[in-house]
Amino acid sequence: MTDAVLAALEFSGIFVFAMTGALVGARRDFDIIGLLALAMLTGLGGGAIRDVLLGVAPPVNVASWERLLTATLAAALVFWQHDRVSRREPVIMVLDAVGLATFCVTGTIAALQHDIAPATGALLGVITAIGGGVVRDVLSGRTPVVFSGELYAIPAVVGATLTVALQEFEPLGVLYVFPALLCLGLRLVSMRRGWSAPGARRRA
Amino acid sequence: MTDAVLAALEFSGIFVFAMTGALVGARRDFDIIGLLALAMLTGLGGGAIRDVLLGVAPPVNVASWERLLTATLAAALVFWQHDRVSRREPVIMVLDAVGLATFCVTGTIAALQHDIAPATGALLGVITAIGGGVVRDVLSGRTPVVFSGELYAIPAVVGATLTVALQEFEPLGVLYVFPALLCLGLRLVSMRRGWSAPGARRRA
Amino acid sequence: MTDAVLAALEFSGIFVFAMTGALVGARRDFDIIGLLALAMLTGLGGGAIRDVLLGVAPPVNVASWERLLTATLAAALVFWQHDRVSRREPVIMVLDAVGLATFCVTGTIAALQHDIAPATGALLGVITAIGGGVVRDVLSGRTPVVFSGELYAIPAVVGATLTVALQEFEPLGVLYVFPALLCLGLRLVSMRRGWSAPGARRRA
């Protein structure tokens, strides 16, 4: 049961992240290849970078044709139904927050299967959650929105760190719902209230 | 015989791709290091990304001094003979199409030596063919031309997919000439006729 | 003794490189996440790319929490003391040259522990020294300064090449001070005199 729920969350996360990638591509007037590339990189890139850093080859997100197909379907949906999809952007942003919450937890857990330091595990969880978006932004010619915009990465940092802490105590799998919900809640509240991350105090 | 032909095609492909990288660098007024870096990344980057994703370390394109030297010579040629080289850009574009056709087939075959899904094999073949150009464009500060310009990636997708299909039937090596010629022909015709890949139907 | 000196140089190099990353982020008005990401990528990115290419997983710079902490502290310093830090930019540039000299030698030595060609060893040493800066620039939306600006990469190329040459003769460890000093001296002199690398002869 839990495994099925996890898989459903993973695949929805890939689909939604891939949609955000394809939408950015459409806004830049990229062609179908650009949409597909951005969909794959955004939906699968974060997990792929994590696996490359862990020495998992080929990365799960590249090896699994089901995941490649999921990202491709998201690109196809944006390609053929761009207007319908982009009208639903508020819904997509909520689903994107669900993806963020899923990936920061599952990415951290996947990393901690390997013999690594806790700090490395949390870092790889955050990379899983935000890495695809960073690649999407660089490839579409803008500086990564997670570096200067809304409160997006910090919920993932919180979720990944709490996941590492739970893992230290070897808890039951179901407990990992908490870091995911914490990340999700923090992201949704900050979307609602327009919170942003603090910048450097340049004129302190 | 076939091996010698393949090696000749591979090295010419690296040389021509590296030249296109160095030419982009020269157009941006990069110095000799910028030209060399772009030449290496464009000529060797696609294959290197494929090998990293497959767990081949170091990547063949990084391990082989002959390949490093080939990219270096291309950079040197552009550095010292920029005007002569850039006057021949139409010829370079045809040779670039030969490189594209070579790499989408050889990249797919190299990937399928590993135990991977057919879709993954085709994807890695396409990455081999277009990955270097994407890195070149990102590092020289423009959005990748394969995402919004001419019909460039689709011939590689066609060639890689047909290569995977042939491999399923374990055919003789010489048969792989067909996907390469198909990719080459498609690319040359689309250069001639100015075909471009379809974009998203934004106002459908 | 030598090991302690080497470790001290490595960690200072990471700290200073990370500071330059965070400073670029602050100049672009990135938030704390952007500063942290640029600090990590600049301080740890070059060595991480080298390790990925060598098949060392996870890369030492990602696996070691001490190194992650070092980059984090550099980001924190720039975040809370931006004005004090940026006023000392001339000092930082000198320390950055020390980091460059350290990394081109230690990166080459680390690479040559593996069974690779001399040219590959030198290339990986140069990537260790300048790779983080290239990633920093691409992620902050500018073309890499090492491609078109000052004489920065060439001292690293000289240091890495001399390190490879020394390794061929299996000399004592202390001899590696020479390539490092040569790289450092060349960089400092070129900073002083405003030397830049030669560009392509576009109108030859």
TrEMBL record, chains A, B, C:
Membrane-spanning parts: 6-25, 32-50, 62-80, 92-110, 116-135, 147-166, 172-189
Domain of life: Bacteria
Domain (Glycine transporter) ranges: 9-80, 94-167
Recorded topology in the membrane: Multi-pass membrane protein
Keywords, in A-Z order: Cell membrane, Membrane, Transmembrane, Transmembrane helix
InterPro entries associated with the record: Gly_transporter
Gene Ontology cellular-component terms listed: plasma membrane
Compartment list: Cell membrane
Pfam families: Gly_transporter
Annotated family: Belongs to the UPF0126 family.
Alphabetized PANTHER family for the sequence: INNER MEMBRANE PROTEIN, UPF0126 INNER MEMBRANE PROTEIN YADS-RELATED
Protein's name according to its UniProt entry: Trimeric intracellular cation channel family protein
Organism of derivation: Aeromicrobium camelliae
